[in-house]
User: Fold these one by one.
Assistant:
Number 1:
Amino acid sequence: MSIEPPSQSDRPGPPPAGIDVAHADLAELLVRRSYLEAEREEDWFVLTSGKRSPTYFDCQVTTAYARAMPLIGRAFLDEFRRQGVVPDAVGGLTRGADPVAQAIAYTSLLFPPVVQLFSVRKARKEHGMRRFIEGCAPPGSRVAVVDDVVTSGKSVLQAIAACREEGLELSQVVVLVDREEGGMARLRDAAGKAPVSAIFKRTQLEALRERLRKGV
């Protein structure tokens, strides 16, 4: 079920509690483009955890959207600075993390310091350099692991493990959407002292969706 875009005069007021005003446009894009809701129970979505849910975040419909890319990049750079650590490079498990990391790296050219880009393979390459990680993150680099959405946390955990195996230092973990299914707690356990956070929580985006539905 989609929501029709409002006219300029019908746009909602301040975003729901917890959503940074500076990132309200990105939140609205996620709700309009990526938030899916099944109308019948038999159409419920199967999550990576194996659970069935009436709602689903198809985040790549937003992370691959040109208008969203600078908003994503700025939101993550703002979060890095809020955490007090700007990494040398940013990346995560291909494919969900790739457009997020690309947006961050490109936007960092406009808001230095520049952050380089890497991508974590799902399996080690069997020829050539036989790498787990491709891109600009040599051993010893401080890296932020990112992803589009976290449910169980499995993809991010795999990326963290690969980074450590390749001699990278984990500086932080930041995801675009936390589905609030317990995945973030697992990431905090794995990250040690590195901060772990989400730009948006599922409940915040659900609250925004209701406001957009009502036009308030």
Number 2:
Amino acid sequence: PRASPALSPDQVRGPLRSHTFAVNEVGIAFLRAARERGEDFGPLAWRHEVAHPLRPGTRGRRARAVISDAVLTYLRLTEEEVLLEQRLLELDRATLPVDALAAELARYADLYRATGKDGEPVWRRRYPVFPGVLCVLAGADRAALGRRRDTALALLRAEPWLTRTPEVSIRVCLLEDLVERGPYAPIFHGLRELGCEVDWLGREAGR
């Protein structure tokens, strides 16, 4: 069989640049929300391409790992305390089949359950509590992204390994809504929030 033609540097950089730009748009949306509310989410509060090895001591992209497009670290203020909110970001630009997107998201159940030689969850080496997952959709028209969101969530709800791991929270929104309305608007559809839209913290409008 004929080998596939090699991609030029411009062909590689184009999608990568668009993906990186979209991830930064997510960060900027959270930055704006934090400034409006007097909360803390600085320009360095999101880290790109964070690998979470499922086996301790493994490094690099070839290792078996869950790779988040970014990790967001947000300090949220209440009347009584400051709360640390961390989220694992998946930015989807509709370049993969929807079942592949669902499979990527379902792997966070693997990350939650992965343990080291001492029997402790590997994620506890980085996080005080397991971060929720935010999946942000872009790269297609609004109607197509809405269908993609609903299909991905339906596939996830049928995934036995994930349904048996209620500690893993996954919420999905459109990048357009996040940029225009911000993360505190009820723009997210959640894996475990059926029949309602919530904000990034899982709260319905008015709560």
